[in-house]
């Protein structure tokens, strides 16, 4: 065999994807040059055929599946398509069950082998089963993209047995579907028999009612999928704190403790101490509303700053009614507190009105009781309230932190009156707004004497000039 062919063969080895056995064979053939010609012919014939197949795979992935050329080249190393018949059947089936071309591209990227599955025998029975338990086509993309290998699992040995276990826990198909939608990956990858079953069993032994178990399983299923030893540890801690297993707060506390590490919980205690909460006050708040502890340091500080510094609440009052911390700062806390403050300043509400009487009301009830109930006294209140909700984020970004209460209120009200165009408001018009709406937010009567008024006027002038 000519020496230059041996050299070429050796150089080409770096471009051909050999396995370990092939390289050993190559070395052997190079030692026996009279056999190398046959090896060279077979190798390049095979390599040429593979590249031809890869070309079709790449083309199909791009044109039929919607993936990018670069990604198609990578995926062609993981799946090889011989003809369009099998993948076409798969794509048609997926399309019939709610997957768009965009969904298909994402699914193929995560699991290209789905294209060579038997659509009729392997995929269809599983998709039909999901339909039978109440999975809608609109849910299918979320489930399949969240767990791209779920269609590769056995229907009889994996999917159905796990479904039956979950249904035995939550009792209703729609709740199983909700679990599947929220944590599709855990459905097939977590140890249901080793973790979920004993975790639920210990809750029942503690006397936790079925309703609480269902809520925990449906809304916080990832917690229930955790190791049994950790789950037991969290339950013991919750019992020591003094939670009643008959109340929903018991399971909510369990999920909080399993979500936050001990180190993070200690940092939370230090944060609360900065607001005057001792350990017992924090535990008291935790017993009433466990989820407040999941607030980030930034969000907790923002909410407390507004409630304590701007609205004048006592920090201990918030510890006694921590659910207030669970509401959106921009969409509920700020708009509602500002509206109530305006009504109190006008003598339309009692000064000692506790915030729990309005913060937890459904939106419709709050509007009826505190906004629409004063059409003659406060004709613009409904528009002001809507403006607060729509604009509080934008205006809070241009106002200093110390002025968040009165300054945001005034700017927002001006915005409402002028249909969102702050600069179209006259100076006098803004002054009237200040007197009518912003003034109540200065808690010290001495401040009304002029210093704050000048400060506000300067702010408004500056905003108008800056525009």
Automatic annotation (TrEMBL):
Biological processes annotated in GO: DNA-templated transcription termination
Keyword Transcription assigned: yes
Keyword Transcription regulation: yes
Single GO MF descriptor: nucleic acid binding
Pfam families for this protein: mTERF
Domain of life, per lineage: Eukaryota
Keywords: Transcription, Transcription regulation, Transcription termination, Transit peptide
Family: Belongs to the mTERF family.
This protein's name: Uncharacterized protein
């Amino acid at each position: 065999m000519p020496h230059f062919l041996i050299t070429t063969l050796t150089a080409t080895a770096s471009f051909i994807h050999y396995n370990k056995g092939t390289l050993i064979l190559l070395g052997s053939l190079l030692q026996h040059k009279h056999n190398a010609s046959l090896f060279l012919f077979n190798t390049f014939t095979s390599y040429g055929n593979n590249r031809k197949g890869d070309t079709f795979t790449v083309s199909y992935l791009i044109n039929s599946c919607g993936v990018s050329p670069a990604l198609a080249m990578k995926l062609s190393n993981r799946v090889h398509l011989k003809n369009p018949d099998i993948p076409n059947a798969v794509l048609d089936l997926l399309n019939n069950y709610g997957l768009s071309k965009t969904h298909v591209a994402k699914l193929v990227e995560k699991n290209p082998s789905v294209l060579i599955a038997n659509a009729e025998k392997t995929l269809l029975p599983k998709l039909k089963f999901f339909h039978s338990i109440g999975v809608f086509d609109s849910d299918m993309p979320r489930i399949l993209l969240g767990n791209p290998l779920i269609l590769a699992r056995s229907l009889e040995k994996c999917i159905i047995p796990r479904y039956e276990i979950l249904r035995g826990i939550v009792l209703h198909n729609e709740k199983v579907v909700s679990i599947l939608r929220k944590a599709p990956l855990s459905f097939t990858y977590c140890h249901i028999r080793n973790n979920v079953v004993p975790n639920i069993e210990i809750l029942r032994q503690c006397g936790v009612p079925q309703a609480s178990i269902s809520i925990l399983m449906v809304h916080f299923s990832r917690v229930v999928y955790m190791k049994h030893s950790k789950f037991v540890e969290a339950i013991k801690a919750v019992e020591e704190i003094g939670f009643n297993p008959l109340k929903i707060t018991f399971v909510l506390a369990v999920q909080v403790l399993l979500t936050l590490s001990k180190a993070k919980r200690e940092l939370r205690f230090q944060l609360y101490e900065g607001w005057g909460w001792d350990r017992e006050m924090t535990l008291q708040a935790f017993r009433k509303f466990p989820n407040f502890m999941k607030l980030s340091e930034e969000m907790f500080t923002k909410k407390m700053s507004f409630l304590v510094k701007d609205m004048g609440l006592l920090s201990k009052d918030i510890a006694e009614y921590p659910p207030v911390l669970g509401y959106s700062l921009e969409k509920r806390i700020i708009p509602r507190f500002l509206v109530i403050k305006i009504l109190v300043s006008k003598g339309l509400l009692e000064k000692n009105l506790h915030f729990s009487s309005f913060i937890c009301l459904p939106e419709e009830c709050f509007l009826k009781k505190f906004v629409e109930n004063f059409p003659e006294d406060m004709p613009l209140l409904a528009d002001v309230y809507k403006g607060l909700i729509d604009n509080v984020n934008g205006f809070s970004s241009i106002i200093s932190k110390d002025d968040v209460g009165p300054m945001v209120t005034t700017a927002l009200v001006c915005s409402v009156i002028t249909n969102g165009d702050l600069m179209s408001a006259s100076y006098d018009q803004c002054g009237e707004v200040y007197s009518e709406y912003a003034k109540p937010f200065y808690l010290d009567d001495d401040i009304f004497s002029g210093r704050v008024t000048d400060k506000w006027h300067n702010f408004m002038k500056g905003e108008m000039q800056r525009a």
